[in-house]
Design goal:
Blueprint lengths: L1 H39 L2 H9 L5 H10 L6 H13 L13 H36 L4 H15 L2 H15 L15 H31 L2 H8 L4 H13 L1 H16 L2 H6 L5 H10 L3 H29 L7
Family: Belongs to the binding-protein-dependent transport system permease family.
GO cellular component, one term: plasma membrane
InterPro entries: MetI-like, MetI-like_sf
């Protein structure tokens, strides 16, 4: 009986993963069509961005013929998509090197920054959210709630300037830029990470607090308390797992924000990450870098949502995917 239930659970999981994979592929296909139509529909416009505004019609015509831009639109899209699938994103018109040589290191830098933010923000937010939700309406709850709302209400660029004013200009404890010219320096990571944590942790804290407060009012928690189960065991074994379901979604969404939504912080601290690369490509009309950044951002967004759905099942086995 148990073996049959395990097989059924495994089968349901495989079906779910297959559906999510199909959703991922379909979404990426739709996005690729939209990106191609928006940025590559007019071959003359592409040639002008690559060769520059001072190129003449003859030069653009020669470039389009040499690069296959005179072929029919479906042929161009198939070739463009095939190149993307093998990692050939084209040549950057800004940096004069293949896009992959710029994109991958910048992705690594942003991943490092995002990892630092998550390692600080998630434990802090969950701890404060649990402490707040355990004693709803208390002084502890109100203090944490006010602090969370206050920090989240201040945009990250304002937090960054505030931190620079204190720790760079006034105290002189930390460097004001994070360009890592001399190699990795953890001191240069402190201010960008702190600015992002100040802005992002409050929302997770509030979500955790609301979820925890709701769980603490359920019958099974009250029964455990009346039976004399120690409060620590009630929180860690019974309440916390169910309370993490809603914050888990918010945490996964933070990954998308940390990839391309931190342009201001990367620009403020001269941090060479994915967001600053996207900004620089947009300002310089580097069409192939913009295309690559767009596709990577969508892939990460859909991928993290898939991981969030999988995480639901482990946090709450009662959830069924269809």
């Amino acid at each position: 009986m148990a073996a049959g239930a395990a097989r059924e659970a495994n089968r349901a999981m495989l079906i779910f993963l297959a559906k999510r994979l199909g959703y991922l592929v379909f979404t990426m296909l739709v996005v690729s069509i939209l990106v191609f139509l928006v940025l590559e529909l007019d071959p003359g416009n592409v040639a002008q961005k690559v060769l520059g505004p001072y190129s003449n019609d003859e030069q653009r015509q020669i470039w389009m013929e040499a690069n296959g831009y005179l072929d029919p639109l479906p042929v161009r899209y198939a070739r463009w998509l095939g190149d993307f699938m093998i990692g050939d994103f084209g040549m950057s018109t800004r940096f004069k090197v293949p896009v992959s040589e710029i994109l991958l290191p910048r992705l690594g830098n942003t991943a490092l920054l995002g990892l630092g933010v998550l390692l600080v923000m998630v434990p802090l937010a969950l701890l404060l959210g649990v402490l707040s939700g355990m004693k709803e309406g208390s002084v502890q709850d109100r203090t944490i709630s006010v602090f969370s709302i206050a920090t989240t209400s201040v945009p990250e660029f304002a937090s960054g300037v505030f931190l620079v004013g204190i720790f760079v200009l006034w105290l002189g404890w930390l460097p004001g830029v994070s360009n890592m010219v001399g190699g990795f320096d953890i001191a240069q990571m402190v201010l960008p990470v702190a600015a992002l944590v100040m802005y992002g942790f409050g929302y997770i804290t509030r979500m955790t607090r609301a979820s925890m407060a709701e769980v603490m009012q359920t019958h099974y928690i009250r029964t455990a308390v009346l039976k004399g189960v120690p409060q620590r065991q009630v929180i860690m074994k019974h309440a916390l797992r169910n309370a993490l379901i809603a914050p888990f979604t918010v945490i996964m969404l933070q990954i998308n924000w940390l990839l391309s939504g931190v342009i201001v912080i990367e620009y403020l601290f001269a941090y060479k990450g994915f967001g600053s690369l996207l900004l620089e490509a947009a300002l310089n009309k580097d069409i192939f870098v913009i295309e690559a950044c767009t596709m990577v951002a969508v892939l990460v967004a859909v991928g993290t949502q898939t991981l969030a759905d999988i995480g639901y099942m482990y946090l709450n086995p009662r959830i069924r995917f269809s």
